[in-house]
Write a structure and sequence with these properties.
2 helices, about 70% helix, membrane, transmembrane helix, DUF2627 family protein, Uncharacterised_YqzF
Length: about 80
């Protein structure tokens, strides 16, 4: 069970890291042939970073809610 949880967190983490690489390459003008334009490469990089961080944050929040570790601000409403 812990291995599955680790894989669930590593995959979006690697995606977020690749997104940072795409953003950096777009800023310094290194174009990947997969994308049609360098601006599209930067936008895909931003989406990868935001998506990866949102997934990891949502996973941690769900786990903390389940274990009653959140403060009143993040409690689920009935």
């Amino acid at each position: 069970m812990r291995l599955i949880a680790l894989l669930l967190l590593v995959t979006p983490g690697v995606t977020a890291v690749y997104g940072i690489k795409l953003i950096r390459d777009a800023l310094f003008g290194e174009f990947h042939t997969i994308f049609f334009h360098i601006a599209i490469q930067g936008l895909v990089g931003i989406l990868f970073v935001v998506g990866g961080l949102a997934f990891i944050g949502g996973f941690i929040l769900h786990r903390d809610r389940k274990r009653n570790l959140t403060k009143g601000r993040f409690k689920q409403k009935d």
